Amino acid sequence: MTLGDIETIYVSQLPAFYEKDESRNIAAIAAEHVCNITRSYYMLHKSETLTLAQETSLIRILDELRLGRPLQYVLEEADFFGLRFKVNSSVLIPRPETEELVHWVLTSVNERKKQNLDTEHISILDIGTGSGCIPVALKKNVPEAEVSAIDISHGALETALKNSVMNGVEVRFIRGDILDDGFSLSSQFNLITSNPPYVTDSERNSMQKNVLEFEPHTALFVPDDDPLLFYRHIADFSLKHLAGDGSLFLEINENFGPATCSLLEEKGFRTELRKDLRGKDRMVKAWR
Question: Do the Cβ atoms of 62 and 74 come closer than 8 Å?
């Protein structure tokens, strides 16, 4: 069996919610992972014969994908902001929209440097860190920053710690529940980031099976009658822990952009709402 044969099999046997181009891309990623090859090598050597071990591994991956399991969970890794992360059922798979949030944060850091603000002692906190993709990417790009992250999940914190070590950065991980009004830290931060749960229960029916059945629901969903639950608690926490010249960066539900801004403004923040590359309300910056 050749690499080209594997691509044909993947395209014909992957679930229908994958379009053909996406199926081809999945086949390429699986082959790169199993055969330890680059995308260019894959494209130029589709007639290359696979070893029995490689063939067996690629078919096993396909079997798991046919059950609806996301590719990143099957491979136990995902790419984010040019870095590689371990992922498992304890954490969400990092998404491109969150890369846009990280880019906005880094732009803000660069603006602080241009304004000659104190960036040598910049401190960053990520709330609900999951895989740790946000704080690890920020620390990798702003090595002088002191970066911390909190999550309620032991499994998520263990995964995030592994990712920080794997990517050669030091991040302080803390177990905490942002919904607990008594939760507090002794520090203040120049930047607070969060991609909290924001999908409403009523939106479940519009989500793909491979998300619903495999990604952790506690990191995804909020009640229909309180869709801004996490943002309200994050705002209250930030009132106490955000430095005077600090900024809060949030990923949001596309349906609640103005509502999220209104909530923050009622608590004394000024806000900026931004769209993602697909033109949907996706990010809010808040400051006092």
Answer: no
CA distance 110 to 119: 9
Give dist(CA 101, CA 13) in Å, integer: 35
Q: What's the token pair of residue 128?
A: 């609900």
Beta carbons within 8 Å of 150's beta carbon, 6+ residues apart? 125, 126, 127, 128, 129, 173, 174, 175, 176, 178
- The whole-angstrom separation of Cα 73 and Cα 278 is 25
CA distance 50 to 64: 20
| Cα(281)–Cα(271) distance, integer angstroms | 13
Provide the token pair at 82: 């040019």
pLDDT band for position 210 (cuts 50, 70, 90): confident
**Residue range 187-215: average pLDDT?**
91
pLDDT digits (tens, 9 = 90+) for 109-165: 998 877 776 656 899 999 999 999 999 999 999 999 999 999 999 999 999 999 999
Distance CA 275, CA 288 (A): 22
Give φ, ψ of 14 to 5 degrees: -70, 155
Q: What is the mean pLDDT of residues 53-60?
A: 98
Residue 117, pLDDT score: 64
Contact assessment for residue 159 and residue 90, using Cβ atoms and an 8 Å cutoff: yes
Strand-strand pairing, 77-80 and 83-86:
antiparallel
In angstroms, rounded to a whole number, what is the distance separating the alpha carbons of residues 179 and 176? Answer: 9
